[in-house]
């Protein structure tokens, strides 16, 4: 259904749907640790130390908010007023879908000194939400067993979860995500915590290379309802590695946010190069490709109503995202280059070399073609 596929990909997606809710709680500022456990029977447990899903009875529906979350489609994150759902915009329909696709699901909420519990089987409540004890902390714990009559494969791949949870931790600075495998013979645990967020992500991606300068350039800001974070650093290689995200979801086909970034980068470096006389009036502008040679960048935006386009719905369409990223990167990169002329000079010089190499390659190609003709 909303998980999109009953393949192994869909199976792993169930975990992300649940974790997204805890990440939202972290983004709201109430949770700093999430633990994901693969249990011996391939059921999953996700625990966070947030406020706990609200337990009070929903006035219109006559059931607890917890039950609304687990039984009503699209309820996730929209209740209780206040913050909007920012994580998982593409499939972020949440807990009710995971519940419907699970043989059983159990939720425990620790809130106001009480421990609340409810169990579901194939999406249907088997008990009411009831107090089963006392507690000295707050948070939510959800365990579920994916339904083997729905999923083709019900064995979790640790490395798949590890990859995605590491990415989520990089994208949410200060959030600790722990992954543990407790299956027999597979016992292992990883902890992901990045104080620097996407700055550390860029350092991680550039680890195998020699970076051109020690600093990671970082820009952040908010325009309207678009929140923008960009981190970038050149290495001495020739590949461009720009990764863009919307609400923590990768957009491999880019879109307006990536276009805004590229436009700002090209314009700002050219303006600087002219002003600093690194580029003569008679010389042509550096192309975007020249400036992005050897660049590793993360562009991460959060937006309340993302519109995805294209065949695979992986390309951001919101026009306001272009302007937001463009203005924040233009302004903050201009300032950074003025404050760090050595870094600016090195980068411009690398781009000029890239431009010359591209020119030389084109001339050689033209010459070969003429000779052949
Ligand atoms: F998916 C899920 F719903 F099952 C789920 C939700 C699973 C897990 C592991 C955690 C959560 C979750 C939900 N963690 N934290 C929250 N927070 C809220 O739902 C919450 C709490 C308080 C208030 C408030 O306004 O007081 C608002 C919200 C959204």
Can I get a quick summary?
The protein is α+β, with helices and mostly antiparallel strands and 373 residues long.
List keywords for this structure.
36% helix, binds ligand TSJ, alpha+beta, single chain, five-stranded mixed β-sheet, 373 residues, 25% strand, nine-stranded mixed β-sheet
What does the model show?
The chain has 373 residues and is α+β, with helices and mostly antiparallel strands. It is built from nine helices and 16 strands. It has helices at residues 8-27, 65-71, 95-100, 158-171, 198-205, 256-275, 288-292, 319-339, 341-372; strands spanning 33-38, 44-48, 102-111, 114-121, 124-125, 130-134, 139-146, 176-181, 188-193, 217-223, 226-234, 241-246, 249-250, 295-302, 308-309, 315-316. Strands 1, 2, 3, 4, 5, 6, 7, 8 and 9 form a nine-stranded mixed β-sheet that branches. A five-stranded mixed β-sheet has the order 10-11-14-12-13, with helices on both faces. A two-stranded antiparallel ribbon has the order 15-16. Helix 1 runs parallel beside helix 4 (158-171) and helix 6 packs parallel to helix 8. 41% of the residues are buried. Residues 75-92 have low confidence and may be disordered. Residues 18, 21-22, 25, 46, 48, 50-51, 53-54, 69, 80, 82, 94-95, 140, 142 line the site of ligand TSJ. Ligand TSJ binds at residues 18, 21-22, 25, 46, 48, 50-51, 53-54, 69, 80, 82, 94-95, 140, 142.
Which spans of ≥5 residues are poorly predicted at pLDDT below 50? 75-92
Number of helices: 9
Largest sheet: 9 strands, mixed
Average pLDDT metric: 93
Could you tell me the number of beta strands? 16
Structure ligands: ligand TSJ
Q: What is the H-and-E element order?
A: HEEHHEEEEEHEEHEEEEHHEEEHH
- Fraction of residues in H or I helices: 25-40%
- Computed structural class: alpha+beta
Shape category = elongated
Q: Over all CA atoms, what is the radius of gyration? A: 24 Å
Strand percentage lies at 15-25%
Termini gap: 57 Å
